[in-house]
Amino acid sequence: MTTPEAALTTYKQKLANNRLGLWLFILSDSFVFAALLVTRFYLLGDKRPHLEQELGLIVTSVLLISSFFANRAEVQISKGNRKGFLTSILITMLLGIGFLVGVVGFEWRLAPFGPADGPEGAVFFMMTGMHAFHVLTGVIFLFIVFRNGLKGHYSPEKHWAVEAAANYWHFVDVVWIFFYPALYLIGSL
Amino acid sequence: MQSTKMDELRRGALVFLGLAVLTVVEYYLGTHEAPAIFLWVVALLKAGLVLIYFMHIGRVFRSEGEH
Q: Considering the entire predicted model, what is its pTM?
């Protein structure tokens, strides 16, 4: 067996372990978000916070589109299209920043209550704040992958970091898939 | 190889389209006082699509890793 072949075999064995580790992390992190979701219904019950419906739909759409581009980035690098991969990662990052601006820059300011104004404020700011923090770390993760991609660190055979960043990004999207109806749509004002 | 790439890109676009349609349905249900159970079903469908087609959850059960 030649050295590059042996290296690829070792990489594949490590990849299976890395994947398991990432999914275990995602599973443990999801318990935090599940606890916040339960807290929302325990404290607010059938009442939902008064929020901007259109803004909620816009930021949700932005995050969904970003997930599409994260998936596209992974497909592009797996097929050796470096330019397509870099473009898709960049768009994903920009959409992530757009989501942060929408939630933290606009929704937080437009909300008719503050974090200390009873359970409504506490629930809303804790849920969106924890999620926004994960979006921010996801953007940082994507930036590192983008920078390494510019240096040519990834190939169709070896791009674990790209897969990990994309999966983390999709996880953040899945969390919002549950947070969006819980905060904006379920219950009455 | 090229056709496989096109297949994967097309699948990604179809999944995104499905997510977009479900989000519109979700918004309509939520703004028209529909029972919460329908919103949960839509959310579960959306999460399932992302987990299966974007996160490739099936990969984690493979003994040897391949991209």
A: 0.94
